[in-house]
Write the structure tokens for this entry.
Amino acid sequence: MFKTLHTKKNIQLAIGFLVGILFGFLLQKGGVTKYDVIIGQLLLTDFTVMKVMLTAMTTGMLGVHLLRSLGIAQLHPKPGSFGSTVIGGLIFGVGFGILGYCPGTMAGASGQGSLDALFGGVVGMIIGAGLFSEFYPKLEKGILSRGNFGELTWPQLIKVTPWLIIIPMLIVITALLLWVEKSGL
Amino acid sequence: MEWLRLEQWSPYAVGIGIGLLSCVAFVLSDKPIGCSTAFSRTSGMIEHLFRGGIVAEKAYYKKFAPSIEWEWMLVVGIFIGGFLSAKLSGQFKEVWVPATWASSFGSTPLVRWAIALIGGIIIGIGSRWAGGCTSGHGISGTLQLAVSSWLAVLCFFIGGIVTAMLIFNVFAN
């Protein structure tokens, strides 16, 4: 349906830019571009980040799978391996706890004037990504390919239709968020 | 339009907005929202300035060419969106040291900057190691029910919670 649109490079750059502006606006309005809010989540004293992420995930899950059933969206699950996903995820977590911003929120935080996000986060992240590209050839042959499971999704793994996972998940997450609100977190 | 000037919206309204925005990105651009490759590409572009065309030969940049593309524009957009939102609500302010940090570690900008830089470097390595960040894995990947993304988010938060707890409960004054 939108196949031709996907091939138009300049229009795509403009769409990416506009989606980014809306994304940054939403992140800032949600309070999740603030160090205090993110670190509060990691210290388990403020659950704003969890509320935003779980609501975004469930809304997107319903929407994208519905669009996929209608034939106007395709999934692009990221490939994974234990060596890459688990080890990389834990390294990311350590940086996340030290910095108090993640890659997207550090861009939004820089925009709201948080200079630690700009000169610490963004500059550090560019250096870190550069270091990774330097070591990539060695890592790729070794740890990154350990326990490779590819572009797997939960419905493929347990061989059911996605809706059999989405509907129960929607119920569980709604119940969890209602409980969180009720207990005043 | 008074709501655009509010300091904060309900996290659920924001979450629904981000979920819908993900759908828009899938339909109009056939792309999941993600941020971390933009930083790799920037790094490659900077390296290109100093070392020239040889940079494009690096294995990693053959996968992620050091040039401006969709995700890069997305990240620039996030910066501007964050600015607009903060400006509209009167929250825009240049801050070196966030309040929670200052209450435990003092308000010296240099200390906070050095620690943030270390955190940034580690997060840069980790996000490319894991193949995504809290957006690409955390929202776009989990909503596609990707196994890799669920596992990654779990590790992001385990690592993050343990590190933050150590910093604020063990090392703090």
Remarks:
- Residues 147-171 of chain B form the longest helix (25 residues).
